[in-house]
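Ops channel
N.P.: pipeline sanity check, posting one input/output pair.
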């Protein structure tokens, strides 16, 4: 191996090490990410909103990764909703929704049937309906998960809460928030594992993203 090649190799390694140190420094200085693209009709949920029907998780028809992500993340979203304990969670299956409305899934931005909320309320006894949509799903590093959710009152169709956020693990702020969540919630014995697993596992990152999005719900 020539001295010139060895010198270039050493220089390259030093540059890579310097870039890694700079990236680590940016992450350490970053403030944890807090969702901000949301709306609350009030600081607290209405007292009469005790049971909420959660519609099936949707994704764009032509977005194959997101369609697959629905299978992975829907049970995680329901689990995180129950952990919030803001209301009783009543999942609606795709088969039930098809029987009631003719479609297995609905997004709030669609033209909804006039009787949709009334039918869901009739069959579930719920006071509210939660629309949930997986807007982005990138299951390879840097991971990304987008949640779009709205909580609608069945009685007067008031939108009590809506959030539309994309959590991108390419952002130092999101990395810091995800690692902080993972360390506090997952009880992993290895700090090093905490620092990496949430950034490489679509399920774990999706759980962080769901928890962060649902953390913007109005208080009970």
């Amino acid at each position: 191996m020539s001295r010139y090649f060895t010198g270039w190799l050493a220089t390259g390694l030093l540059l890579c090490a310097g870039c890694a140190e700079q990236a680590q420094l940016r992450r350490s200085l970053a403030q944890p990410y807090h969702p901000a693209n949301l709306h609350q009709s009030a600081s607290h949920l209405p007292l009469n909103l005790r049971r909420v029907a959660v519609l099936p998780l949707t994704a764009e028809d032509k977005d194959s990764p997101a369609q697959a992500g629905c299978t992975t993340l829907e049970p995680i979203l329901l689990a995180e909703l129950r952990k919030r304990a803001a209301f009783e969670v009543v999942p609606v299956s795709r088969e039930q929704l098809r029987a009631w409305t003719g479609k297995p899934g609905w997004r709030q931005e669609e033209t909804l049937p006039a009787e949709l909320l009334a039918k869901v309320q009739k069959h579930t006894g719920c006071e509210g309906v939660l629309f949930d949509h997986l807007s982005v799903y990138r299951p390879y590093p840097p991971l990304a998960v987008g949640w779009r959710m709205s909580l609608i009152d069945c009685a007067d169709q008031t939108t009590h809460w809506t959030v539309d956020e994309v959590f991108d693990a390419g952002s130092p702020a999101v990395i810091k928030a995800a690692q902080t969540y993972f360390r506090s919630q997952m009880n992993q014995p290895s700090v090093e594992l905490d620092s990496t697993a949430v950034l490489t596992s679509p399920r774990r990152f999706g759980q962080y993203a769901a928890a962060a999005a649902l953390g913007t719900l109005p208080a009970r």
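N.P.: looks fine end to end. The chain has one domain: 35-214.
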